[in-house]
Write a structure and sequence with these properties.
The structure holds two protein chains of two kinds.
Chain A (H helix, E strand, L loop, with lengths): L7 E17 L2 H10 L2 H14 L10 H8 L4 H8 L9 H18 L1 H4 L7 E17 L2 H10 L2 H15 L5 H8 L4 H8 L8 H18 L1
Antiparallel strand pairs in A: 1-2
Chain B lengths: L2 E2 L11 H4 L1 H11 L6 E6 L6 H15 L3 E6 L4 H14 L8 H17 L6 E5 L16 E5 L9 H11 L4 E4 L12 E3 L16 H10 L8 E5 L8 H12 L5 E7 L5 H14 L5 E6 L4 H10 L2 E4 L8 H8 L4 E4 L4 H4 L7 E3 L2 H13 L1 H18 L2 H18 L1
Parallel strand pairs in B: 2-3, 2-4, 4-5, 5-6, 6-7, 8-9, 8-11, 9-10, 11-12, 12-13
Antiparallel strand pairs in B: 1-3
Helix pairs in contact in B: 2-15, 3-15, 4-5, 7-10, 8-9, 8-13, 11-14
The chains are: A alpha+beta, B alpha/beta.
């Protein structure tokens, strides 16, 4: 079995939620908040919420969309916000720009809704990230499979979802290593195609393990 | 004298069966850089109340991760606790005339405790307003101090908060149970949820025979739908509103209602509310109003597990951990959108929110008509609690906070 020159180091992550000083009680205020909040706040309400609500699939993809639906009662806006896919972004700036565009366009088209008070306020928060090495590494596909199977939800999220921003590539840690470390490009692409919006973290991991097992059987 | 509490050790690995070995490995990895480092938790009561209940379960877990953690309880006389109870109510928004004497009593007990408590751990966590002025014991640049506020500060009494803020703003950070409960402060504020322990008597798995026995004891029919609200008899929990919602549901479904709460014998207002509840219940044989002993975790657990739907129709709420207790048991929950409840109930995902008697009744009817949706909400609710509101997650948040603070220094 092939062994990678650089082993895959398994890491886990924990987030502390910092409460910001901004909140929104209307869609117009949400837009203002989106324009001014920190990058850590955009990350918290999009990437991180996908991790903390990893068991939900239908209709829940980020906090902004959920708030537009549940508290502003604007299904149309919620759908547009939910359609923003974090896999399409390699920077928070680009994601922020699209969030602002969607909310801004809606407010411009429906100025009467923009100023309407929502049921509950939206509170802008930030993620403070702490990572910790798990002291486990993988040099071969077998070791890699074993490591993935034993990761916590947060560890899996870190390597599979939040890594996209860190790598600044349209891929994740797992695919990156499978491709660069083991030269398994087709497998890497298949792993990268696992849909994190229509799968839970558990079902994403299950699909990943199944792909790894198929590859192991070939060897 | 203040007391330092010694607690029984709970094996961390016992949680692995429920949460997965990876989650426990993660806690150990996060705790590694903190091994042997000292932490002090300070509050004002050793027994009773949510804070003591959480600390009692949290400390042994932290010890198992080799953290040098201690729990100190500050001392206070009757006059101190009278003042702090008034402060507590005032901070929740109740009317209050704050006198200079009250502030002096507060400060004098904090000063006495400063003299007896060695607040020299690397991380000092002060719980709630009572010991907030202990911050005066801090030597500049010596250690990290954080204030954990378990109460809703969204509409505080101005005078009491202004007084308290002079102390709070000198901490390195403050933790609140909801962003809505926080204040504009010059220090970082963090979100820290209360937590339940899945292995405690209130939440552990139960023998079905025991549940049957409890139902028989309270003459509840296991064959018909059971709607339950577990709450003390308090107007803010709106037990009368629950009965009114049940009456609407009853027109369509042959169901039963269980209202169970702590004994009202030592609470004059509770006794009045209980009478109101009994009057509203009238002679309906399908309403069970149960006065539980002050500490009846197994009965609460059994009643929640036997329920078809759990209700929490509060008019105001702190965090409302009974919601998490029900969700952990995979129960569909219909609850009011107040306090910390919307954090636990993500509408249509982990339960259903309502804003009125009629709305509560409608959501209950909807779930009774669609048991498959009720089951799905219960499953998602369980996962939500597992991810966010368990004692192990709380421990993880503390580890993350300490690591963040240590990194800053």
């Amino acid at each position: 079995m092939n062994a990678a020159e650089t082993p895959f180091e398994f890491v886990t992550v924990s987030y502390l939620t910092r409460i910001g000083n901004q909140s929104a009680g209307t869609l117009a205020e949400l837009l203002k908040g989106l324009e001014n909040c920190s990058d850590a706040s955009i990350f918290h309400h999009t990437y991180q919420t996908l991790g903390s609500h990893h068991f939900l699939t239908e209709g829940f993809s980020n906090d902004f969309a959920q708030w537009a639906l549940a508290d502003a009662n604007r299904n149309d806006l919620a759908e547009q916000l939910a359609a923003l896919d974090i896999r399409d972004y390699i920077s928070i700036a680009a994601l922020r720009s699209d969030l602002c565009r969607v909310v801004g366009d809606f407010c411009a088209a429906f100025p009467h809704f923009a100023k309407q008070s929502t049921l509950e306020r939206f509170y802008f928060c930030e993620s403070v990230e702490v990572t910790a090495p798990l002291g486990r590494s993988a040099g071969t596909l077998d070791e890699f499979r074993d490591g993935v199977a034993h990761l916590s939800h947060a560890g899996f999220y870190f390597h599979f979802i939040s890594s996209r921003l860190r790598l600044q590539l349209r891929t994740n840690d797992f695919s990156h290593w499978l491709s660069d470390g083991l030269g398994l490009r087709t497998l890497a692409d298949s792993v990268n195609q696992i849909d994190i919006y229509t799968n839970t973290l558990d079902s994403s991991r299950f699909k990943l393990l199944r792909l790894l097992d198929q590859e192991r059987r070939k060897a | 004298m203040s007391e330092t509490l010694a607690l029984t050790r709970i094996p961390l690995d016992d949680y692995a069966e429920l949460l997965g070995a990876g989650e426990i490995e993660e806690l150990r990895a996060l705790a590694k850089p903190l091994r042997g480092r000292s932490i002090q938790m300070v509050n004002s009561t050793a027994v009773g109340g949510g804070v003591a209940e959480i600390l009692m379960r949290l400390l042994p877990l932290a010890e198992e991760l080799d953290l040098n953690i201690k729990w100190e309880v500050m001392n206070g006389g009757e006059d101190f606790f009278d003042v702090t109870k008034s402060f507590h109510n005032a901070l929740h928004g109740a009317p209050y005339h704050a006198s200079q004497r009250d502030f002096e009593i507060f400060l004098s007990y904090n000063e006495r405790n400063r003299a007896t408590l060695a607040l020299d751990a690397e991380f000092v966590v002060i719980h709630d307003p009572q010991p907030a002025a202990l911050i005066d014991a801090r030597k500049p640049g010596s250690n990290h101090w954080v204030w954990r506020c378990h109460i809703d500060l969204s509409h505080p009494h101005r005078g009491v908060w202004d007084f308290l803020e002079t102390f709070v703003s000198r901490y390195d950070g403050a933790m609140f149970s909801s962003p809505e409960f926080s204040r504009q402060l010059p220090i970082p504020q963090y979100l820290f949820y209360p937590a339940i322990d899945p292995l405690s008597e209130k939440n552990c798995a139960l023998d079905p025979a025991f549940i049957t026995q409890i139902l028989a004891h309270y003459r509840i029919d296991p064959q018909r739908p059971i709607l339950t609200q577990i709450s003390r008899f308090d107007r803010l929990k709106d037990p009368v509103g629950v009965i009114r919602a049940y009456r609407i549901v009853k027109r369509y479904f042959d169901c039963q209602l269980v209202l169970a709460g702590g004994s009202a014998s030592d609470d004059p207002e509770g006794a009045i509310v209980l009478k109101e509840v009994l009057r509203e219940a009238g002679n309906d044989p399908d309403i069970r109003v149960i006065e539980l002993p002050a500490w009846a975790p197994l009965e609460v657990n059994a009643l929640q597990r036997a329920s078809t739907i759990v209700i929490q129709k509060s008019l105001r709420e702190g965090f409302g951990l009974t919601v998490s207790e029900a969700l952990w048991k995979k129960k569909p929950v219909v609850a009011s959108a107040v306090g910390g409840i919307p954090i636990q109930i993500i509408h249509k995902h982990t339960g259903l929110l309502a804003h009125s008697v009629e709305g509560t009744a409608y959501q209950i009817r909807f779930l009774l008509s669609h048991p498959e949706i009720a089951a799905k909400l219960g499953e998602h609710g369980h996962e939500h609690v597992k991810e966010n509101f368990l004692i192990t997650q709380k421990l993880k948040r503390y580890l993350t906070l300490f690591l963040t603070m240590a990194a800053k220094s």
